[in-house]
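Input record (one chain):
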Amino acid sequence: MRRPLFVFAAALSLLLTACVAEPASVTPTPLASEASSALPERPVVEFRSADSVSIPGLRTLTDGDNGSLVYTVIPQIEGYHRLNERLREVREQDTRDVVDTISAGGAASRGSVNVSWRTLGSAPRIVGFLISSIVSPGASTAVRERSVWYDAADDRLLGWRDLVRPEDHDTVIDDVLAQLRRYVAQPDLVSAQSILRSGDPAVGFTATGDLILQFDEYDVAAGAEGAPAFAVPVAESSLTGPGKAAREATLRPQPLEAAPEPPPAPEKVDCRAVKCVALTFDDGPSGRTTPRLLDILEREDVRATFFVLGTQAQAYPKILRRIAADGHEIGNHSWSHPDLTRLDPQDALSQVRRTSRAIEKATGRAPDLLRPPYGARDKKLDALARGEGYAEVLWSIDTRDWENHSPKKIIAAAKKAKRGAIILMHDIHADTVDAVPHVVSALRKKGFTLVTVSDLLGTTHAGKRYYGRY
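The corresponding structure, as predicted from the sequence alone:
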């Protein structure tokens, strides 16, 4: 079909006009900063707190180190050991970066960490805390927040996926990712999805009951975005039993029930009436050998005393907590095993105090027994022990396991024990651990009851030396 002539004429006229007209203005592509400013303003999302509620048995565990600018305060609740251990783990994760950086950088390196907490929710059988850390391992600073929810009814820790029914996980994840796209410049959606599916973002509820999921700074976006938090409306039917309890504990907090009474402690042995000896283990804990030793002692129903190094206590806090939980005694063996009598008094004091802090940080209890490395002691060390409240514990039987590495020789040495003896071994040697079941058997055949040092000695006095009970 032929088109009318005027159509082609008009088209030609437009083409010619375009050729002679001034160039049209082009809107420039916005810079990233301009693009981010064009995003809708992200809604402010805040965790509802339940700080006003009273929690029976609640106390705080404080640790401060002016040398590295470390100051931490976390809650602990009497009788709830799994909860308390998790709260200590969170604190240790956040302080480890700073301590490692300072150690690597020497005296010139400065870092800081400040850890605080608040209550997210509380009910008779559930409680939640938010641990907030301002961490600066060097030039940068980051804010980290960890939620710790605990179901006392089942003695288990809860993450967000435990609060929402599995069939609704994808709906929550999709909602959070959609908000990330809408409100955050250049979000890392791959990391966000990974954290939501298998990580542990902070979780709580708003004042209206919406679920909150919060990422740490730098996890899913540039540091300028802070710690992105998003509220997701979740129907009651989408929450699990613990999820409903957690939301109720947030909106209408009540006191947590006191922990059930622990089983009665083993009856104290009267070593005035019974033939007692004490097994002691130095230089641990070791990640390789101490757990196996603890298994043996548990199987044999033996309580022992562990004189630990601060460096090892800091490296293996979980093992230290197991030592305490299994009913063993923990003593101070210095930070790094120097001869304390050859140190400047302030350096010797630092060796002892740093170790005490590491033990208390891991177990919640400071030691009151000190075993000086190599058994080296003098009047200055006696004064230090007296001033810090330590009884000095030496030994009467040295198995020399550190030298012979022979189970046969270790057993033979231990069999020489007399009533009231303190036997020295080291839990860092595999040969020693191999020998322990035979040592226990041989001593029991001689009529001995195996006890901790404190059970053996009874009342002790700070600054006094003890080699056994005779």
